């Protein structure tokens, strides 16, 4: 019995030492300073009459939607919490993209369509420092300052069957619902044609309407910020009628 008693006491002592050691480690961990960087706050104030998307460190040639920092409504302020700039000498670049109404829900039959435009010299560059608060203003563009990113096509199908709009070997998807088919009637289909940074004009000579057969659109040159409207009536395509999209144009 005495031996068992001593074994019990010894086990209790060993257990106490282990528990004390773990407790000491935890206390040491708790006492370690927190060296992680403290975030900064950036208040983006949108003075313009447009809704604005703000992207960070966006490569325009390889558009990355994950670079979206926030969306700011007209006349509103959006507070964003972010970590300090990785490079404290160069800093970060923020790209405002003004959302310009291309077509309303009555025209599309679904939702409003907004397209991207940028203001000349509108990128915001600064070093985000730890724990600081910044306020950055998004100004109202003046006449001629809005530069659209891409060009756009509008198609009305007045024929007897639904159609697809094809470019070369690919099918264009409508901007409102990403659908491949355009039904007959008064509903309009809107499509975006992407231009790279070096192109000011792109020749469109492989555009077709497809139902039971392919029908060629007339060849035309497409420019940024312009809308090219066509009517497809079975085997007959008329257009384009060209509209300047800039709502602030002179």
Structure description:
The chain has 250 residues and is mainly beta. It is 14% helix and 42% strand. It is built from two helices and 19 strands. Strands 2, 3, 5, 6, 7 and 9 form a six-stranded antiparallel sheet that branches. The termini are far apart.
Distance between the termini: 105 Å
Largest sheet: 6 strands, antiparallel
Gyration radius over CA = 30 Å
Provide the succession of SSEs.
Answer: HEEEEEHEEEEEEEEEEEEEE
Mean pLDDT, all residues: 85
Instruction: Specify the structural class.
Output: mainly beta
How many helices? The count is 2
| Unreliable residue stretches | none
| Assembly status | single chain
The figure for the number of domains is 2
Shape call? elongated
CATH top level label of the largest domain: Mainly Beta
Helix content: 10-25%
How much strand content do the residues show? 35-45%
CATH architecture of the largest domain: Sandwich
Q: CATH topology of the largest domain, anyone?
A: Immunoglobulin-like
| Number of DSSP-assigned strands | 19
Secondary structure elements and their pairing?
Elements: H1 2-31, E1 40-46, E2 51-56, E3 68-72, E4 77-82, E5 92-103, H2 105-108, E6 113-119, E7 124-126, E8 133-138, E9 146-148, E10 151-157, E11 164-167, E12 170-171, E13 188-193, E14 201-204, E15 207-210, E16 214-216, E17 220-223, E18 226-233, E19 236-244
Parallel strand pairs: 1-8, 10-18
Antiparallel strand pairs: 1-4, 2-3, 2-5, 5-6, 5-7, 6-9, 10-13, 11-12, 11-15, 14-17, 15-16, 18-19
């Amino acid at each position: 019995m005495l031996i068992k008693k001593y074994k019990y006491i010894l086990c209790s002592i060993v257990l106490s030492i282990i528990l004390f050691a773990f407790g000491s480690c935890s206390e040491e961990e708790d006492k370690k300073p927190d060296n992680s960087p403290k975030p900064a706050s950036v208040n983006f104030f949108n003075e313009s009459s447009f809704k604005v998307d703000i992207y960070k460190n966006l490569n325009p040639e390889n558009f990355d939607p994950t670079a979206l920092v926030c969306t700011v409504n007209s006349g509103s302020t959006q507070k964003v919490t972010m970590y300090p700039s990785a490079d404290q000498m160069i800093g970060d670049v923020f790209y405002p993209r003004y959302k310009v109404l291309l077509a309303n829900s009555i025209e599309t039959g679904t939702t409003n369509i907004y397209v991207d435009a940028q203001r000349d010299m509108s990128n915001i560059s600064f070093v985000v420092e730890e724990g600081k608060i910044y306020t950055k203003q998004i100004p109202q563009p003046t006449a001629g300052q809005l530069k659209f990113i891409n060009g756009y096509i509008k198609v009305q199908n007045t024929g007897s069957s639904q159609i697809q709009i094809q470019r070369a070997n690919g099918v264009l998807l409508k901007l409102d619902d990403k659908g491949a088919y355009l039904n007959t009637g008064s509903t309009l289909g809107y499509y975006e044609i992407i231009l790279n940074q070096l192109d000011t004009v792109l020749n469109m000579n492989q555009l077709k309407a497809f139902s039971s057969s392919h029908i060629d659109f007339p060849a035309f040159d497409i420019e940024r910020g312009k809308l090219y409207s066509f009517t497809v009536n079975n085997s007959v395509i008329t257009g384009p009628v060209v509209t300047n999209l800039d709502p602030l144009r002179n």
